[in-house]
Amino acid sequence: MNTRDDILGRVRAALGRSERSWEAARAEVKATFDARTAGPRPLFDADLAARFRREAERMSSTIDEVAALADVPAAVARYLDARALGRRGVMWPGLAELDWAGAGLAMETRAAGDADLLGITGCFCAIAETGTLMTCSGPRTPAATSLLPETHVAVVPMSRIVPAMEEAWALARSEIGELPRAVNFISGPSRTGDIEMTIVLGAHGPYRVHLVLVRSE
Fold it and tell me: Can you give the pTM of this predicted structure?
């Protein structure tokens, strides 16, 4: 038994908690959360993709839209060339099956380092209400890929766009269960207003966030 287990064990003993009562308490808390009622909610347009796109652009993201996942590498290459950005970067392993080399891109499947200028990721889901990406860290979805490079490109299947934060968390509970080490919400490029209340992009992360919406997976 390590020190943490020892301390928690003594706390449980002082409270008169046994393993059985602890499980019953957890079940009671879970039942309470499952039975919760939603508070007042804003109305959402039927077209969640249009709402997401509008809000994401308002947060200074740029957006492209493609018909299928196979079209993503060419769309990314067009974006990079239009801004005279390099064609080398890192990406999540789940995107490795796409034909990046055919689009003229040199991509590596590893977490980003200080020298990497381009990071390409997917997302767990996207939130229409605020134009926000939700990412969940893991061995195949390293958070550094979206946080360290100057340019972050995210592949967003339209089927993963949900109305609001409530649906995003509900999806995480149903699909993931126990939450990962880090859940990040990305609303456009990083920014700060610390200096004379002037907004500066790229202060603590990417200067640019580009979203490629995929109509069909």
Answer: 0.82
